[in-house]
């Protein structure tokens, strides 16, 4: 029964989908819809195309800062034929999610308690090239992926699919080198060394048909003011008392997961071909990684499940039934320990073109491909047998020390477009548009990762303070909406009788969206 609770963790890595790729990585790239592979911008070349480092001369220092706010929304509607095992009125029908805030994860410290209206971060970058040398060296600190949502209302219906969701992949160092093969051809390589964090805190409920049927049997079989003698000699459905009556809409437990991968290296390979001033071609390949996380878990089980199991074992026939189903003799109120997981970080490839029809106008267009289709499942491994999983052995969970979560994501291809115009010798304006396809199919959407197809709009400028100093400023806005009819996503609202995938909103229509606002600033100084 309670296996469905644990599967709420399955949606978390989905937030690495196309929605968050390159979302806060580079100030200049963001202003051009991330279409910069054929015109790599300064130190951001390390990520977007390390071959672009060869265009940086002498010694350069860049300091970047950004603020990003993420707001998700969801509303819940109960169809006319709604029925979960005989329960026909979900208390969250007609409600919607509320206020959200962002938090920061500091490597070595953890998730900070402060709840901010926007996530704020930044990092330095450095490059060095000797005069007349074909080699340029560099390194930078930057964020490649981020998703942070903390719900502030303890009664928010979204708490059943993530009270706190935080995913972060921060490159702490990225040794890189670019080599100029000829006047028109450059190649480059970078080795980003990333710190990855994965945090989830969620309440859990079980609107499952089997849970509902069992609860209705209890309601009809068990007196409100005492026990049932026949039940004591039978299955023990009443022996857990009022607290032990199953209700598919009642909170069953709370789960906390906090894992990190302190150092996870990947590799970026880039080629830049610039045969003409008005045309360039760029290609970058960013390798994937089977990122190995480790950390802590904690399950707090509410009285409903604990008393139900205790009731079975206090009757005559209940222990026989429970043992046949492989259920534990008891479920502790709190169970915690160490855990690990291998979560694939998919490979990414980007091909871009630069067209400059006039001296003052330039167009960029990039094609992006991410290999999310290679991710079929994620496995959580615990340091002990999880009693909640033992209760769920009737659903086919044979090994209660681990949980394999099918994902079923797809590889996606999407485009990015950029336009820049030189207004004056000192001022350059930039505009970007990026229709971003999500790697999460519609039948896999949930509130932990509400990531539909989105559109990103951006604008920014570069201003040269003097020949050795310039600034870049970017603002962007991204939005996407979804509508998931009842029963159409088996990560959120399916009603299958033996559905062990976590579906906290089973049988409900769920509609909502996501909005991301970004403001970035960078300062570059040449020496």
Work out the strand percent: over 45%
Radius of gyration: 26 Å
Specify the biggest β-sheet: 14 strands, antiparallel, barrel
Instruction: Compute the number of strand runs.
Output: 25
Task: Give the overall silhouette.
Answer: elongated
Would you tell me the overall average pLDDT? 89
Order of strands, widest sheet: 1-5-6-9-10-13-14-17-18-21-22-23-24-25
Structural class: mainly beta
Spans of 5+ residues with little confidence (pLDDT < 50)? 1-19
Report the end-to-end length measured between terminal Cα atoms.
Answer: 65 Å
Number of separate helices: 8
What percent of residues adopt helix (DSSP H or I)? Answer: 10-25%
Report what the structure shows.
The protein is mostly beta strands and 527 residues long. Helices cover 10% and strands 46% of the residues. The longest helix is centred in the middle third of the chain and has 13 residues. The radius of gyration is 26 Å and the shape is elongated. The termini are far apart.
Topology:
Blueprint: H1 3-6, H2 27-31, H3 45-48, E1 58-77, E2 100-101, E3 105-106, E4 110-111, E5 119-129, E6 135-140, E7 142-151, E8 164-173, E9 176-180, E10 185-190, E11 193-205, H4 209-221, H5 229-232, E12 251-265, E13 268-276, E14 279-286, E15 289-301, H6 303-313, H7 318-324, E16 334-345, E17 348-358, E18 361-370, E19 377-382, H8 387-391, E20 402-406, E21 412-422, E22 427-436, E23 454-466, E24 469-484, E25 509-526
Antiparallel strand pairs: 1-5, 1-25, 2-7, 3-4, 5-6, 6-9, 7-8, 8-11, 9-10, 10-13, 11-12, 12-15, 13-14, 14-17, 15-16, 16-19, 17-18, 18-21, 19-20, 21-22, 22-23, 23-24, 24-25
Helix pairs in contact: 6-7
